[in-house]
Amino acid sequence: MPPFIPKRRLDDPDDPQRAASPPPPKKAKVETTTEQTAIHVGNNIPSSKTTADAPLPTGNISITIDKQDDYINYTASSTTTTAKKGPSKREKQIRVRTHQLHVQFLLYHNLLRNSWACDKEVQAILVRQLSADIRKQVDKWRRASGLLGPIPSVGKKKEPKGKAKNARSQRDWGQQSSRLEPPNAADMSRGDPLISLLRTLSAHWKSKFAVTAPGLRKRGYSTKLELRRLVDSFQRGQHSPELHGERIRNLSEFRECARTCQGSRDVGAQLFTALLRGLGIEARMVASLQPAGYGFTKVEQTAPTKEGVGMPATISTSEDRPSGHATPTKPGKKERQSTRQQRGQKGKPGFVDTDESDSDSVIDLTPALPTARRPLYDRELAYPIYWTEAISPITSKPIPCSPLVLQNPVATTDEHLAAFEPRGVKAEASKLVIAYVVGYSSDNTAKDVTVRYLRKHIFPGKTKPFRYPIQSIPVYSSSGRIKRYEDYDWFKSVMAPYTRTQQMRTATDDVEDSTDLVAQEPPQKKAEDGPDTLGSLKSNPDFVLGRHLRREEAIRPGAKPDRFFISGKAPNLQSEPVYRRSDVERCLTAESWHKEGRRPKPGETAMKLVPVRAVTLTRKREAEEHERITGEKQLQGLYSWDQTEYIIPPPVENGVIPKNSYGNIDAFVPSMVPRGAKHIPLRGTVRICKKLDIDYAEAVVGFEFGNKRAVPVVLGVVVAEENERLVRDAWKQHEEAQRQKDEAKMGKLVLSLWRKFVMGLRIRKEVGQVYGGAEVNNNNDRPITAQLKKKAADGTASAILAETRDRNQQRGTVRRTAKSPKTLERINAAEVKQGLAAEVKQGLEAEVKQLKAECERMIANMENAKENGKENGEWKGEWRVQSTTILPLYLSLNLG
Fold this sequence. Notes:
By secondary structure, the chain is α+β, with helices and mostly antiparallel strands. Among the domains are: 1-68, no CATH class; 86-148 and 185-306 and 373-522, Transglutaminase-like (Coagulation Factor XIII, Chain A, domain 2), CATH 3.90.260; 536-586, Rad4, beta-hairpin domain BHD1 (Anthopleurin-A); 776-895, no CATH class. 35% of the residues lie in helices and 15% in strands. It contains 24 helices and 28 strands.
């Protein structure tokens, strides 16, 4: 039986049997909807007509099953048949939304970690782990920074004798001058004392903290199959730090990391920030966000792995870190201790205590059992993602510090700051980018500090491919035209809830906003003096070739070339003149000049002929017809400014406005309005001119193009100068009347709605009291209703009839009582209904009267507030609120 070889084709160049066996003459391929299965047979496949005596096919059989996946490679060459030309608009929007959401999630994640770093218990745990020598260094820093008093003198100081009495005889002549400072003044004689303390704490933390988990990193966009496997493994509870990353679910686990001093590099930087805060140093937790990008470049794709989603390349088991067991060495070769270890002292950071006896130096050549070494995480990440900024209490300047990653943990110069910016091959291989660098303070505010860590503070610099750019948003006028463009910074709007207000700003904000966080413009590239090339002339701001001119550019007639550019190879050398940019003229068509209020001068010849740009359907048909008849494309001439003149329309005579063939007038610019006429750019003036019987012309101020048509934009009218005031006054009166009419209509609608609302509430209340089973109020306000309901509850017609007879006798009416029982019941029901209606009416009148009194009282209060607050205008707000509630109710009651 031939062996089963998955994922291998017979035409695979890596197949060892390909060279020995001939290529298969025929292949069979079976495709399904969810997966593609290709079956390749070494020999011919027998057909259905093959008899039983036919020999069975021999040779290797390979079956390849390709799982369907929605992975699209946009970075592949456009010449390949499987590559897609480019992402669609929807795919671009999905990438942008993914990038923006990921940035916001990272901002909130870091806000939680920063709040954990402010926890007092976490800070106390870290401070208790400091040695006595480091505590002395902290006290020394506090005293040098002026936070504590001077060192108290112990005992009586001896008086100097001999030459020491004379100050000029001493070695240190500046000893007395140092004592002139106040006791609590900061000591800056050796620089900022915080720098030396940070170096000491960095050495302590690097030796104390152990990296036992991977940190955050950017993986890129992977296929749906890989993501599905990753999500499934996470949902099943199979958490793996190498696959899913480090997991710290709550503050208790974060405190445990502080006790054990173990975790990822990111947690180490966060705990170091908490340590500084516990010592009384104002510190920021700085995070360089690594979000998923919004582009489709190769950097945004995940690195391919042999086994799909496996363990990322974050673990290193190299021999660069010493293990706990001694390794055998050659006899007679003595290991040399480093100079730093020889000079180290016990109790200080970096000291190695080696209490080895002579017997320990004997080499044990007995083979030991192999022990599992602790994997080393994130060794390929040469740049930090989290670090700390310590604020100096003397200079109010932030001092960056990264003890676990950088060789120089404390950045004091611009060269040290450049070490935080990822660049080079290592950054590209590990997908480390710099896009958003955010610093979190102890008051749970955040600030964008990206500019500080860019080389030479040039923005956008390295952040350009990965940071969402500033967009220009058009601002439209009432007529639909674009008035201006405003810059919209998306990340600035996202950071608005995190930033400090103007009242919360500190001295550090003022210092860094005027120094480190001032973005510098990228330097302009100057044209180097050298031989002319095609590329240099194309981007040269002073010179230009004729081939590089735009469609609307032409060389001024009579311009002399500055030099000649030689292109090509012998013997096909070509010489092209090189002109100055100052000799280039801007040229437009006659229609374009007409929109600017100019027209070509009579007898002028076009400076340049270019093909017609047909935008509307009519122009396209004309161009096609011209090309069909002549066999050439239709051309149109371009004219320069000097070849055109202003359009001066004929003046107005006897109040008649000159019009074009369409019955209107072109008013693209003010100079196109005839002399003696005025342009009134108000909508609705055509109706006014018709009512006043005034000659006018509609003003065309532009065109809008859509659906292959050019629609003129009409705004206002052009009338004679003597009729301008009359038209404007009539327009104002018409607008005022229209406004009053609209307000009356709206007021009527509001009052009708209020009346309907109030009447509905009354009816609902009364029906609920009478028929809703509510408790009857037996007071003197409604005696008739209570008595009638009491009698009706008895169910006796005689009682109801007797009550009705007594009431009729009191009113002076006589009614026959000799009726049948059915008649009595009908009379009973009629009397009950009459009594209920009278009672309802009486109760409603009382309620309406009470509501009217309440409304009048509130209106009187509003008038008093209006009289008392005339100067400061406080009554306007109260009047606006009450006018929308009380007045409509009051008017509806009066109308009812």
